[in-house]
Write a structure and sequence with these properties.
heterodimer, A: mainly beta, B: 562 residues, mainly alpha, two-stranded antiparallel sheet
């Protein structure tokens, strides 16, 4: 209820502001008009969209396509006073002309503008008391405008990828409707479950608490500003430790009355970068003497006494007129035993037709983007209205993908010269097909090469069972997916309304009042249906007779702010600014679900038609945040800027004993280049230093503070112990930086940031006898060190040729510097094999070259690769002619003294075993098989492979490289985005090893010296006495499947040609656009841009496990746009 | 100017008011205050605690039961799911308890859930101890108190069965008091004391409204939980817990067998079942999973081979471990009618097919089936392979009493309580009484000749067809032999076959006390490392059990030489 009372307060305040302004409206008189042309000083080209204005009067107009402007000062405001006419254009230095006496009449003033290489003059609004030139901002801010974004995206965050130093954006899933993962600098939370590691995002003054940013679309973006850490984001208080991104959408004109239309359409396709997934050409299954039929495994019968043809068998097991299929026969060596593991090769050529399952089940799907917008001004109202439709079908055959219909209306009403009211609204309606979101796991490694996924049985149905069981050790790949696509549905329908209103009142030069209110609502319905008659492998009543579940989610968020900013000239060259602000936001989430099984009537998809196993559930949660802020800045001679702020935040998420938390910042800028003594001389210009130290927070997850019991249909159970003293995590970041230009051509921004996040919110185990198993406590510290460099090089700028290069580089290291609880383990975000992916410790010693306390260390097992890897006591027995040698694949193996790694077949050594009693590890070794590092005989932990640090998920560094080239009417834009030096757990390869379907161990073309049996790759962990070596290792991370994931992506390419008018109409541009076109990498998985779920670390960018996620797609589209 | 100051003041006031109301109740998860706010709520909470106790062992795959079953040869699987594969190997791996071990989730489940049940039931008992509090009537109070003591006793009992130590929470302890860890014998003593208090209350319950029987939802069973039936059930559990807490033959021998006999004789008179419900519980996840007959389950010959009269088991036992089953999965013939009959695989498959188990009858014709050849699985060590799967409850798994897996399932058989008494009688030297109890199932269910030699040494009758034929010296290196067992071995055979898959760790609990586990098998699990850490333990204070590398809690070479 308090939210409504606050809303009333806000609205009352806004109304009061408007009313008081209306009461003081001035009278009319004669006008003054300025006109002229704005051009590039370098090329002489007219600058379109340059803003020409008189700041004292709050008047601004934009230049037209010819670079011309006309600025009219209403007669009532022409009083002979002094004024300053200023022109600004993105990428150019601003220019001001003093008007000593503003009088009626016309005058012409042209402005040739110089290039602003470091964009020091663009206005920044994020993290500062009020909009200010970048050169006076004491911390690093990434700012992009529509001009920097020639390749539009369906998602605003995707637009950021590769464009701002210290910002990592990655699509860890290519499933239609997915949103990218984002991280600014480094993570600030050890545990971010349910919270994520992403920044606070504000769109047109509305805090994004609900839904997906994707629903905003990427077409309406006017600018994006990124403040990457607490040093800059402290103004946003308790939710800004991970930085802040503010997005402004396009707005109506400030020029002449009128309207302009833009129409844009893109049509193209999306597909996988490659359908070549390294599937092996050969298999280990036993064929008969003809090589065309498989030998059925029958106990007590001679091998190959019964054989079968594969697709005939598939038709047999599927062609049953029932809800179930038959079980396929088991083929000899489908699941080899220990003896087979040492003998069987993966060297049989598949008989008959060979299919590529990935190619069969994926498709080149249409991509459609159509948008129209109108920008204009009528009287005192500026408007921007847009509508768009997007369709991305995804890449899987039979799926519908995601579609979105979106409309936006932005209005700016200059109610009076001193009162402006802005309204922003968005409506989005989207549908998403959620089927087969996890299909790739079974598909990529389980699919048998001879199975025709497009085949139908004699009754016209897609084959349901593809024979994984009996042909694969796990049975993986046993499902033929097209059947499911035809016989079930899973649709998501979402509606989003986002609206915000901002009123600015400028009653005098020295004061501004601003009020903001935003409302955001998203409702979503998921409807999952399995049709009656759905077939399964074995009788499953609740599925065969159909089932349905419906899930509703309704998110509602409001936020409001009231701000007063006061400016005062404190001396001849000293300007001061003071601001106070109160903010409030509230977010309520409600969900409910119901459903059941067994339809009474076929094809009536309503839950009333269900007859059994009904279920229902619901939940809700409300979060309230409030903040009081005050800040001040001093600006002396445009050389020294000193700024300080304090914010006091309260949150319903904090424990009852700590409802409020303080945040603040102190920062400064020294513009060295403005010092009288500074003589840059062209070598080093525009030099400035900046420093900022600030704090910001991260709130606990909703339930963290509460003592909880879980209530469900099955009873009441204990959850977690409460903690009324739970505090927010607080990041204190110190940021130092400098900006300058070299040779008046190369712009350089360098930033160093050191962030320390204390009071880490962690679920801490409690003694079981307390009943509660965990309690959230403030129990650690995480530290980040970041270096960022941004370069901008305008190579050429002539009348006909323009070439600009940009680049970024960044590097972050994250350490657990304190931990007040015992070391603990986190999973890697997948269900199997990664349960102990991360070891969380504050131990600063090193292991395998990694500081143990480095956050993101991958904790796994290590196979020996060199003699030096062996325990020192074993090393003397390693080397040529000795018991342990390195084989042709680079792994250290046991071969026995006097043998070589190439003697396995010729000396009949493959089945030889070094008994445990003779093994240094008291663990039997198979001849020629890899050896896992484990304690020696008698050492603690003897018997099990030793977990140790084998990599880190965070890159050594990242860089991007952008080219923007324009020759006459032709424009080429390219963006290369690289992430270097991180490790990925290629669990897909692990599954491949388990299913004996890894191309790396395909024995085609091997010789008797180099051939390996399937046990070489198949098993090592867990039941180690049952396996014979192998890298599969129960899907756990090890130094075979954990690979370097370095990559560079040609993320965006755009080639456009400006046609101009066609038949006297419009201003046409045609082009081709590629996204995610090429990936340069040595990573052996399908795509190195991966991440598994969110898990405890809260980010797929941290859970670097490649567990067959839906791969990122490349898209290629043709674009056509015009404006008139 | 004043206008602006006033507006600023309004703003500050509004924000301040908002700030005062930052407290938000969690609408989804109540806290103790709400959970215990009324007598009805207390009953609601208490009424779910048997189900919660049950869930730890039977409601999930994520516990140690899967490991215990492969460790005791009740099952064979090399799948790594739920750490079966990690524990199935011979020589035995330890029950690794190091920080972050791959089986941590499974190894902590029973510990934490029973810790929770122990705490909640103690809280309820503390509430009942409050003289100002009543459920409504003295009878209702007594019913609640008896049930709380019963479930609290069960929770402590299963902690003692599974772990080397645990904390005993009592009604007198404050909510923040976690108690100290004590050994399993002390925990078991507390469990038996609690069960005895439940028995004492229910043996003489006050008259009045809302007394016994227990509400059906508290303990879903086809048997109404009248006070008398409740006492019989509690005494049965006392017998099971007291006998099976032993970690080795010496401790088993030292059990108070008089007490076991007394409880068994006053225990259940028919199979005790719970009405399973896939949605609401109670359930039996592991048995459901084992009946899927894939790589999750098959019967290794180690134990079932003792029924063989073909010589296959003797030959199998004589081989080195690595060679057993390597040529072909184990096949046997046996006179025991709980196994499929016939001289050939085809004959056994014809004698009894799994599909004959799909009717409404809970009990199948045979307990074990010679599976169809096409369903054979070959994964892991060859000594695990046999033709046989356990199918006794297949009808429950598929379409027993109504919908699959919903309906009565026996969690405590009459045979078990009889054989608990039989072991007591045998250990007391009352061989005739013991034989009568053993013969009940041996003859009626197994079709085997009754034991008529009432002593400790005579071989069971049957000659060449005797069951069981027990192995000697059947270790890793081979060379084992088999011979007809004595009365105690007959008892062990009956108990294994009759209790297979009927309750949590059935074979494991008995095998450790009988000394039949393979060398190095952990005889229990250490208190989970998370609990040790929470109690301030670090480094070597966090320990593992079992294995062959000097940990505590390792079984020595067993009776049969493995």
């Amino acid at each position: 209820m308090i939210g409504f009372s606050f809303r009333r307060t806000v609205l009352t305040g806004l109304a009061a502001l408007g009313l008081s302004a209306a009461l003081t409206a001035p009278a009319l008189a004669q006008s003054a008009t300025f006109r002229g042309k704005v051009t590039s000083e370098k090329s002489g080209q007219p600058l379109v969209g340059a803003a020409v204005g008189i700041g004292e009067l709050g008047l601004t107009v934009l230049t037209n396509a010819q670079g011309n402007y006309v600025l009219t000062v209403p007669a009532a405001r022409v009083n002979g006073q002094s004024a300053t006419l200023t022109v600004r254009s993105i990428g150019y230095k601003s220019y001001s002309r003093a008007i000593t006496a503003l009088t009626a009449g016309e005058r012409t003033i042209d402005f040739p503008l110089a290039t602003d290489i470091n964009k020091l003059e663009e206005i920044i609004v994020t993290g500062v008391l009020e909009g200010v030139e970048r050169q006076k901002v004491p911390f690093a801010v990434g700012r992009l405008t529509a001009e920097d974004l020639p390749v539009v995206s369906k998602d605003p965050l995707t637009l950021l990828a590769g464009k701002v130093a210290g910002v990592r954006v990655a699509m860890t899933s290519g499933f239609p409707g997915s949103t990218p993962e984002i991280q600014l600098r480094g993570p600030t939370s050890i545990n971010a479950a349910g919270r994520g590691q992403g920044p606070l995002i504000i769109v047109d003054d509305a805090i994004m608490n609900v839904g997906s940013l994707r629903e905003l679309g990427g077409l309406d973006i006017e600018s994006i500003e990124v403040v990457k850490g607490a040093a800059g984001a402290s103004l946003y208080g308790t939710r800004a430790a991970n930085g802040v991104i503010t997005i402004r959408t396009k707005r109506g004109g400030t020029g002449q009355d009128g309207v302009k239309f833009n129409v844009r359409t893109e049509y193209g396709f999306a597909d996988l970068n490659s359908t070549n997934y390294g599937q092996p050409a050969n298999h280990p299954l036993q064929l008969d003497e003809t090589g065309k039929r498989f030998c059925v495994q029958l106990a007590g019968r001679a091998p190959c006494s019964r054989t079968l043809d594969f697709m005939t068998e598939m038709q047999r097991i599927n062609g049953v007129n029932a809800d179930t299929t038959r079980t396929p026969q088991t083929i000899l060596y489908a699941s080899p035993g220990p003896a087979d593991l040492r003998n069987v090769f993966q060297a049989q050529i598949w008989p008959g037709q060979y299919y590529n399952s990935l190619a069969q089940l994926t498709t080149r799907s249409p991509q459609i983007l159509t948008a129209v917008d109108a920008t204009g001004k009528i009287g005192s109202v500026g408007f921007y209205v847009s509508g768009s439709y997007t369709d991305e079908s995804g890449a899987l055959v039979g799926l519908n993908g995601a579609q979105s219909r979106r409309a936006r209306v932005n209005l700016d009403y200059n109610a009076r010269a001193d009162l402006k009211v802005s309204v922003s609204t968005l409506y989005d309606n989207s549908t998403t097909d959620l089927r087969d979101i996890n299909v790739f796991g079974a598909l990529l490694r389980g699919g048998l090469p001879g199975f025709d996924y497009t085949a139908r049985d004699t009754l016209g149905r897609y084959l349901l069972r593809s024979g994984g069981t009996g042909f694969r050790p796990t049975g993986n790949g046993g499902t033929a997916f097209l059947y499911a696509s035809e016989n079930r549905f899973n649709d998501r329908t979402a509606n989003r309304f986002l609206g915000s209103i901002t009123a600015k009142y400028f009653p005098a030069d020295w004061v501004t009042f601003e009020g903001t209110f935003a409302y955001d609502n998203r409702s979503r319905i998921d409807n999952a249906i399995v049709t009656k008659g759905f077939r399964t492998f074995s009788l499953t009543t609740g599925t065969n007779n159909g089932n349905q579940s419906i899930g509703n989610l309704d998110d509602e968020s409001i936020n409001g702010a009231l701000t007063a900013t006061f400016r005062h000239k404190l001396g001849t060259d000293l300007n001061g600014k003071f601001s106070v602000r109160g903010v409030y936001d509230e977010n309520t989430t409600m969900s409910s679900g119901h459903g059941g099984q067994i339809y009474r009537v076929k094809d009536v998809f309503q839950t009333d038609n269900l007859s059994t196993n009904f279920f229902t559930n619901s939940s809700s949660a409300t979060v309230k945040n409030v903040g009081l802020f005050t800040g001040a800045s001093l600006d002396y001679k445009d050389r020294y800027v000193l700024e300080g702020s304090f914010r006091y935040d309260g949150s319903s998420l904090f424990g009852a004993g700590h409802r409020w938390a303080p945040f603040g910042r102190i920062s400064a800028v020294w513009q060295v280049a403005n010092e009288p003594f500074w003589k840059g001389g062209g070598l080093l210009d525009e030099l400035r230093f900046r420093a900022s130290r600030g704090t910001a927070g991260s709130t606990p997850p909703f339930t963290a503070q509460y003592e909880t019991y879980q209530v469900s249909a099955t009873g009441i159970t204990l959850g977690q112990a409460g903690n009324r003293n739970l505090r927010p995590e607080t990041t204190t970041e110190t940021e130092l930086g400098t900006d300058f230009t070299l040779f008046r051509r190369l712009g350089v921004e360098f930033t160093y940031a050191h962030g320390v996040t204390k009071d880490q919110i962690l679920p801490v185990s409690t003694p079981a006898s307390l009943g509660f198993s965990t309690q959230w406590q403030n129990a650690g510290t995480l530290t980040n060190k970041t270096f960022e460099v941004a370069l901008n090089l305008p190579v050429l700028n002539t009348r006909n040729f323009y070439w600009n290069m940009r680049g970024t580089w960044d590097k972050t290291r994250t350490y657990i510097s304190e931990l007040f609880v015992p070391d603990f383990i986190y999973a890697g975000g997948t269900g199997q094999g990664t349960g102990s992916f991360f070891l969380m410790t504050a131990d600063k010693t090193k292991e395998n070259g990694f500081a143990k306390n480095r956050y993101g260390n991958i904790y796994g097992r290590r196979f020996y690769k060199t003699c030096a890897d062996l325990p020192s006591s074993v090393q003397p027995d390693c080397g040529e002619g000795k018991s342990f040698q390195v084989d042709d694949k680079g792994w250290l193996v046991w071969v026995g003294a006097g043998n070589t790694t190439r003697d396995g077949i010729t000396k009949n050594l493959w089945t030889t075993i070094l008994p445990a009693s003779q093994s240094p590890w008291n663990y039997a070794l198979s001849w020629g098989h890899p050896i896992i590092d484990r304690p020696l005989r008698g050492e603690p932990g003897e018997g099990s492979g030793r977990n140790q640090i084998i990599g880190n998920v965070f890159p050594d560094f990242r860089f991007t490289f952008t080219n923007d080239i324009q020759y006459k009417r032709l424009t080429l834009y390219t963006l290369l985005d690289a992430t270097i030096g991180h490790e990925i757990n290629n669990q897909g390869e692990g599954w491949g090893l388990l299913d004996i379907s890894s191309a790396y161990f395909d024995q085609a073309n091997q010789t008797v010296e180099t051939a390996k049996p399937v046990g070489y790759s198949w098993r090592a962990g867990g039941p180690e006495s049952t396996g014979s070596g192998g890298f599969y290792d129960l899907l756990g991370p090890n130094n075979y499947v954990v690979e370097t994931g370095s990559y560079a992506k040609l993320r965006e390419v755009s080639l456009t040609y400006k046609v101009g008018q066609v038949a006297g109409v419009g201003d046409w541009t045609v082009g081709v656009i590629g996204r995610n076109l090429l990936t340069f990498t040595n990573y052996t998985g399908l795509d190195p841009e991966v991440g598994a779920g969110t898990g405890q670390t809260g980010s797929g960018l941290i859970n670097q496990t490649d567990a067959f996620g839906f791969p990122t797609l490349r898209t290629f589209t043709f674009s056509l746009s015009t404006r008139f | 100017m004043m206008r602006f100051v006033i507006r600023g003041g309004v703003l500050a006031l509004a924000v301040g008011l908002v700030g005062c109301e930052l407290a938000v109740q969690n609408p989804n998860n109540p806290e103790t205050e709400r959970v215990l706010s009324t007598p009805a709520d207390v009953e609601n909470l208490l009424g779910t605690q048997y189900l919660r106790w049950h869930t730890a062992m039977y409601g999930r795959l994520g516990n140690v039961w899967g490991m215990a079953n492969v460790q005791s040869f009740e099952d064979f699987s090399s799948l790594s799911n739920n750490c079966m594969g990690q524990r199935v190997g011979i020589p035995r791996a330890s029950n690794d308890n190091q920080v972050g071990n791959g089986c941590a989730g499974e190894q902590r489940a029973v510990y934490y859930i029973e810790g929770e049940v122990n705490r909640i039931t103690s809280n309820v008992l503390a509430k009942l101890d409050d003289p100002t509090f009543t459920m409504g009537t003295p009878a209702q109070d007594a019913r609640a108190r008896a049930f709380a003591e019963f479930v609290r006793g069960l929770s402590l009992g299963y902690l003692a069965l599974t772990y080397d130590s645990a904390a005993i929470v009592t009604p007198e302890m404050e909510g923040e008091d976690a108690g100290e860890l004590v050994g399993y014998q002390e925990v078991m003593t507390a469990a038996l004391d609690g069960l005895q208090r439940a028995i004492d209350i229910a043996s003489n319950p006050p008259a009045g409204a809302n007394g016994f029987p227990l509400p059906a939802t508290w303990l879903p069973s086809s048997t109404s939980m009248t006070a008398a039936n409740f006492v019989r059930l509690a005494r049965s559990y006392k017998a099971r817990l007291r006998a099976t807490v032993a970690r080795n033959p010496a401790e088993r021998a030292a059990v108070d067998w008089d007490a076991v006999i007394a409880d068994a004789q006053n225990g259940i008179t028919a199979d005790h079942d719970n009405i399973t419900n896939t949605t609401l519980g109670p359930f039996n996840s592991w048995v459901s999973q084992w009946h899927t007959f894939t790589t999750w389950h098959q019967m290794t010959p180690f134990v079932i081979g003792m029924a063989d009269n073909s010589g296959a088991y003797a030959a199998w036992t004589a081989l080195p471990l690595a060679q057993r089953g390597a040529a072909a999965p184990f096949f046997m013939t046996t006179p025991d009618l709980r196994f499929p009959q016939g001289a050939t695989r085809a004959a056994q498959q014809a004698d009894f097919a799994i599909t004959s188990c799909t009717g409404p009858s809970l009990i199948c014709k045979r307990y074990f089936v010679n599976r169809p050849g096409g369903n054979d699985t070959f994964s892991g060590e060859s000594w695990g392979y046999s033709n046989y799967d356990f199918v006794r409850f297949y009808s429950w798994r598929t379409s027993g009493a109504g919908t699959a897996r919903n309906g009565p399932f026996p969690f405590f058989t009459k045979a078990e309580i009889d054989l608990l008494e039989a072991e007591g009688q045998l250990r007391k030297g009352n061989f005739a009484a013991a034989a009568a109890l053993i013969n009940k199932t041996r003859v009626a269910n197994g079709g085997l000749p009754a034991i008529t030699a009432f002593d400790a040494t005579s071989p069971v009758p049957g000659g060449a067809d005797c069951v069981p034929k027990v192995p000697s010296n059947a270790g890793i290196t081979g060379g084992g032999t088999v011979a007809c067992g004595n009365m105690f071995e007959a008892l062990k055979w009956e108990k294994r076959i009759e209790t297979a898959y009927t309750h949590y760790m059935a074979w494991y609990l008995d095998s450790r006390g009988w000394g039949d586990l393979a060398e190095g098998t952990g005889v229990h699990w250490a208190a989970p490392y998370e609990d040790l850490q929470a109690r301030g333990r670090t480094g070597a204070q966090i320990y593992s059990t079992g294995g062959t590398t000097g940990n505590t809690g390792s079984a020595p070479k067993g009776t049969y030489g493995w």
